[in-house]
């Protein structure tokens, strides 16, 4: 009787499906990046806005603010509660997936032990069952990741709204026309008063303190040699 090819395919699928719990574990490790990622702050219009600003009437020059909202979010009191709740959700989902994966592995092992004793018809039935179990496990993995991402968005939404309100209030008080994410800046002339870092002001409005290094701008600050040239012509 020819040996069926399913066990090899199943073994490969176990390698793939076994990565799911690793991906779930990595979600929490990436929380600071994911919760502070571009999906919460949309800089898609930055280039367009800067172009419009550069071509506007010089006499109507705008004041621009920028802030490190990632640093502010990381220090907001509610972020720890978000992380703890996501940790609980991750543990629960991992447990469910591990049980389902263990059941699948047991069925694969049973198939491999019994395949030489099964008829061709029964082999096909068992292979179909294993494929269906594999597909169901993959669906469960995707659903678990989607559920965790949705839960993260729900938990983060109040914090993001609170942060946006603080940014709006600081921008209004300082008569700013535009506020950018710090990461959107490539260069800031330190001698200009038309571009200001409002990170500490936003944090203060929220009643939190952040380290000086977190509030400092990431782009280069150059008051003497903005073009970075090394000499004179």
TrEMBL record:
It comes from the Bacteria. Gene3D superfamilies: Skp domain (3.30.910.20). One of its GO terms (cellular component) is cytosol. Residues 210-233 are annotated as: Disordered. Residues 83-154 form a coiled coil. GO terms for biological process: protein stabilization. Keywords: Coiled coil, Signal. Pfam families: OmpH (PF03938). GO terms for molecular function: unfolded protein binding. PANTHER family: CHAPERONE PROTEIN SKP (PTHR35089:SF1). Belongs to the Skp family. This is OmpH family outer membrane protein. It comes from Longimonas halophila.
